[in-house]
Design goal:
It is a single chain. The chain is an alpha/beta fold. It folds into two domains: about 190 residues, 3-Layer(aba) Sandwich (Rossmann fold); about 140 residues, NAD(P)-binding Rossmann-like Domain (Rossmann fold), CATH 3.40.50.720. The protein is built from 14 helices and eleven strands. The strands form three sheets. A seven-stranded parallel β-sheet has the order 3-2-1-4-5-6-10, sandwiched between helices. Strands 7-9 form a two-stranded parallel sheet. β5, α5 and β6 form a beta-alpha-beta unit. It is globular.
Length: about 375
């Protein structure tokens, strides 16, 4: 059956991976929207759209005819990333963005079959307190922690009542991929950090984060395949699923694989605030780009807010083991999606992709 997939947030980590996945699927037409043009569209038809602009979304209605699947991966984040996660203004804008798109979509696409929303472990309050391990889909903090997740979820649940289309909500853990300019992608942040260390003449890559905690990650391409599965599987209708690679990791333990992927021997634990120390190094980055013929643009364009996110997820400043942050994927596997990936392999793969595209220096 022919699918027409609308991907909102095409330049983000999830949207970029979804655009790659669906564009390669037989019998699938892909429309991708975002404010800025993606570096690659992978065969999708990209159109500029600012989801905060209700009038622009209304004018976009003719493009939405015959859409069968919506992958909503758009996200508004602001500088001061972590603090913004609980701010009313951020919640309001993310709620508005979905409403601006979803109203015209429902009116223009009578053949709509499925909507995918993305949440994450902030649904379990990971940003404010230790998780109840393992976090399960029926243990969200809807009534305790303000979050735009709940506004978007209520909108979709209420709109779906009595309709033929269905929804799925996916809750990935730390997402790792090869997108550019994302708010929460450690690959460009760590790649730039390594390039700066190389420029300084170092052959050993020191670990800049804090004392580790047991955590999980998910490869963006694996997540995209899960999105594709959810849009077709009967068992995914109107359900919520955690999504991970299937294993666990601790940052200091996976660091040797990261160092090797970037062409270094593993160094020592030398805490360094990447957002404070590396983000301002634009002149040095200009030299590195010129020396290697890189296509990655300025640090702002390439790394986005991800220096701050890398500091957060690697626990910069933490001097004792943090509480484990683990979710259960039993529900997803029992529903039929059983794909897994080794997390060290994921890191190597993602760095290699950016190196091959000349976004990061070769190892």
């Amino acid at each position: 059956m022919v699918r027409k997939v609308l991907i909102a947030g095409a330049t983000g980590l999830v949207g970029h991976a979804a655009m790659k996945h669906f564009s390669a699927e037989k019998g699938c037409e892909v429309i991708a929207v975002s404010r800025r043009r993606p570096d690659e569209t992978h065969g999708a038809r990209w159109l500029p759209l600012d989801l905060t602009d209700a009038a622009a979304c209304a004018e976009f209605t003719p493009e939405l005819a015959d859409v069968t699947h919506l992958v909503y991966a758009a996200l508004h984040e602001r500088p001061g990333l972590v603090a913004g996660w609980q701010e009313e203004e951020q919640i309001r804008i993310n709620d508005l963005m979905l409403r601006n798109l979803f109203g015209p979509l429902e009116r223009a696409a009578p053949g709509l079959r499925h909507v995918t929303l993305l949440q994450g472990t902030k649904a379990y309050g990971v940003h404010v307190r230790p998780l109840m391990v393992p976090a399960r889909e029926n243990r969200s903090e809807m009534h305790e922690q303000p979050n735009f997740y709940w506004n978007q979820e209520r909108l979709v649940r209420e709109a779906q009542t009595g309709k033929a289309w269905s929804w799925s909500i996916l809750r990935p853990v730390l997402i790792v991929g090869d997108s550019v300019g994302s708010a929460m992608n450690v690959i460009p942040a760590l790649g730039v950090y390594a390039a700066m260390q190389r420029r300084a003449g170092k052959s050993r890559l020191d670990y800049p984060g804090g004392v580790g905690r047991v955590a999980q990650a998910v490869d963006a391409d694996l997540l995209a395949r899960c999105i594709g599965w959810a849009g077709q599987a009967e068992a995914a209708r109107n359900e919520i699923f955690n999504v991970t690679n299937g294993d666990v990791f601790v940052w200091p333990n996976v660091w040797p694989a990261i160092a090797d992927a970037l062409g270094f021997a593993v160094g020592d634990h030398v805490p360094l605030a990447l957002d404070r120390e590396i983000r301002p190094c634009e002149p040095e980055w200009v030299e590195i780009r010129a020396a290697h013929g890189l296509k990655s643009g300025t640090l702002k364009d390439f790394v986005g807010l991800s220096f701050e996110y890398a500091d957060y997820t690697m626990g910069f400043g933490r001097d004792r083991p943090g509480p484990a942050a683990l979710v259960s994927t039993i529900k997803l596997m029992q529903a039929g999606f059983t794909e897994v990936m080794d997390t060290e392999t994921m890191f190597r793969k993602c760095f290699a992709e950016m190196q091959a595209k000349r976004l990061l220096p070769p190892p």
